[in-house]
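Priority: low. Protein: Nucleoside diphosphate kinase. Input follows.
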Amino acid sequence: MGSLGRCLARGLLRGQPGIRRSFGPPRCYGSAPPELREQTLVLVKPDAVQRRLVGDVIGRFERRGFKLVAMKLLQADRGLLDQHYQHLQQKPFYPALLAYMTSGPLVAMVSSSGDHPGGPHPIGELTAPSLHRNVVHASDSVETALKEIGFWFQRDELVAWECGDSQYTYGP
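Result:
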């Protein structure tokens, strides 16, 4: 599992509400070579969209140094969800999962680890009223992220950009 996935898996554990503090100031992005940057798919599920938590999720990632490189609001269809959750299709809860994921719009995002791959990136937990329905999904490994990003985004939807004030904030 990549460091980004480990971080997200630790930070998005269900049943532990609260915000964890970051380890240092937020950073700008772009100093790590592209081959060292990890990306992850983040899904803000229907409950979180309805509770207007999208901005909170984005802010938590940005405060930990992640860079948003793609985002869209959509109503997921069965075909897309069947691809994404292929490993869960035989589980008894799969019909309920499909009903939940199609109950309203969701926000799909791709976040990049930016300029400090491999470092700790804790993120606060976001849970739904039910322990069985978390409100944010993040890929659990580099390999899974590559596959999942391919389900939700076309390559030309990922935006490469540099933070405009990085040299003023962090030096050349």
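The beta strands are 39-44, 67-74, 106-112, 136-138. The longest strand covers residues 67-74.
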